[in-house]
Each structure stands twice: as structure tokens, then as C-alpha cells.
Automatic annotation (TrEMBL):
It comes from Shinella lacus. Belongs to the binding-protein-dependent transport system permease family. CysTW subfamily. The chain crosses the membrane at residues 7-32, 64-88, 100-123, 129-153, 174-199, 234-255. This is Spermidine/putrescine transport system permease protein PotC. It holds the Pfam family BPD_transp_1. It is a multi-pass membrane protein. Required for the activity of the bacterial periplasmic transport system of putrescine and spermidine. PROSITE patterns: ABC_TM1 (PS50928). The keyword Iron-sulfur does not apply. The lineage of its organism: Bacteria, Pseudomonadati, Pseudomonadota, Alphaproteobacteria, Hyphomicrobiales.
């Protein structure tokens, strides 16, 4: 039985990785296709990469997505971090209710949040645009930053704040010199995750984006209505390359930190 389990687990893991990454591999391969088909190979070419870079709609959508992802991730991380520190370090009435309300968007259908935000926007007379788009993405991202930072803050020794106070540090100095450096990896992880969630968001963006603030996922969807070409594959391949590059940079710094500590 143990031998069977020992064989099954690696095989199941391999099948899972193939299931996850095989579509990405096919997408990248057909980005270099010379023809217009995404299923029939007609030769090697880089023409679709140039075509994707020349597409004004895709470039504008990419710009909107990057701006909104950075802004919403920064806001969501600040709000989530503040809420997590309040829950972990400060006793107050209704703490459990407060935590439940913070993570409520995780269990609510995203389309319900999007419709609610659209109704609130129309009722208040706020024009659709960057502001509503960022607000919607912040609403969706806050639970993730809150959970990540709360888990890290819960693992901190509460005596560190007491030691900092004994050495003459006030609350602000203790936070900036003790708590914040220890939580920096978790805060960075929360920021990156929120940025990815915002960049990939489609449902909320569909309801709260306005003229001139159409993000990349909606631009891609609009392009697909006129037919699927390797131009979308080329754009996806470039985004995958950027993601891999960011992961390699982060991992290299993480490995350097581990080596210094050892």
C-alpha cells in the first residue's frame, strides 16, 4: 500500500502540473505561428509580436491595467495591513464581526459586488472611470492582503513591542523599526497578489470601467469577438515572460537573504 501511494502521489502531481501548464505552453508555441490559425502550425514568425505591440487598443488597455493594478494594490495593502494590525494587536469590541466584514468579499459572488458598486456609483452620480475601477479592485483585493498580513502579524512575539518601549521607543518608532521590517515580506506578498488579482479582474471591470479606462482583459475580450488570432497568443507570451522575470528577481533576492542568514 505504501509503495502504491509513493507511486501515485508523484504521478498525480505530474498530471496536475501538465493540466495547469500545457495550455500555457500551447499558447506560447502558437504565438510564433506564421499563419492566422491558433491550431494549425504554418511556420515560424515573430510578426504577431509586432502586431500586438502596434495595436493601440491593447496598448491602451495594458496601460490602464498597470495603473489600476498598482494603485489598487497599494491601497488594498495599506488598508489590509492596517486592519490586520488592529485585529492582532488591539483588543476592541466587535473584533470578530470586523474581521468577518473585511473578508466578506471572498464569499460573495463577484458579480454581486460589481452590480452593487455600479448601483452605488449611479446613485451617487460618480462618473465611471479610473476612480470607480480602482475602488472596485480594492474592494475585491482587501481580503487577501488582510489575511496574509494577519497571519504574519499573529506570528510576531508581542514582547518585541514591550522591549522597544523599554528602550525608549514610542509607538511610531516601534512600528517603523521593529514591526514593519518584520512584516515587510508579508506586505510585499500581499501587494503582489493584489496587483495580480487586479490585473486579471474581468467581472468587476466590466461593470465599473468607463470611456478611456478599459482594462486589458476587456480589450482582449473585445478583440476575440472579431476572431482569435496569434496576436492574443503573442500578448499572452509577453505577459508570461514578464511574470517569470518578476518571479526570478524576487526569488533571487530571497535566496540571497537566506544565504546571508545561514
Amino acid at each position: 500500500m505504501k509503495k502504491l501511494i509513493a507511486l501515485y502521489v508523484p504521478a498525480a502531481t505530474l498530471i496536475g502540473y501538465i493540466f495547469l501548464f500545457a495550455p500555457l505552453l500551447v499558447l506560447v508555441i502558437y504565438a510564433f505561428n506564421a499563419g492566422r490559425s491558433t491550431v494549425v502550425w504554418e511556420g515560424f514568425s515573430l510578426a504577431w509580436f509586432a502586431e500586438a505591440l502596434r495595436d493601440r487598443g491593447l496598448r491602451a488597455g495594458l496601460q490602464v491595467s498597470v495603473i489600476v493594478a498598482i494603485a489598487s494594490a497599494a491601497l488594498a495593502t495599506m488598508i489590509g495591513t492596517s486592519a490586520a494590525l488592529a485585529v492582532v494587536k488591539r483588543p476592541f469590541a466587535g473584533k470578530n464581526l470586523f474581521s468577518t466584514l473585511i473578508i466578506a468579499p471572498l464569499v460573495l459572488p463577484e458579480i454581486v459586488l460589481a452590480v452593487g458598486l455600479l448601483v452605488a456609483t449611479v446613485w451617487t452620480g460618480v462618473p465611471l472611470g479610473y476612480g470607480t475601477l480602482i475602488a472596485g479592485h480594492v474592494l475585491v483585493s482587501i481580503p487577501f492582503s488582510f489575511l496574509i498580513v494577519r497571519a504574519a502579524a499573529s506570528g510576531l512575539d508581542p514582547r518585541l513591542d514591550e522591549a522597544a518601549a523599554d528602550l525608549g521607543a514610542n509607538g511610531k518608532q516601534a512600528f517603523l523599526r521593529v514591526t514593519l521590517p518584520l512584516l515587510a515580506p508579508a506586505i510585499l506578498s500581499a501587494f503582489l497578489l493584489c496587483a495580480v488579482i487586479s490585473f486579471d479582474n474581468f467581472v468587476v471591470s466590466t461593470f465599473v470601467s468607463g470611456v478611456g479606462s478599459t482594462p486589458l482583459p476587456i480589450q482582449i475580450y473585445a478583440t476575440l469577438k472579431s476572431g482569435l488570432t496569434p496576436k492574443i497568443n503573442a500578448l499572452g507570451a509577453m505577459l508570461i515572460a514578464v511574470n517569470v522575470l518578476v518571479i526570478l528577481v524576487v526569488m533571487s533576492r530571497y535566496l540571497k537573504t537566506i544565504r546571508k542568514q545561514s
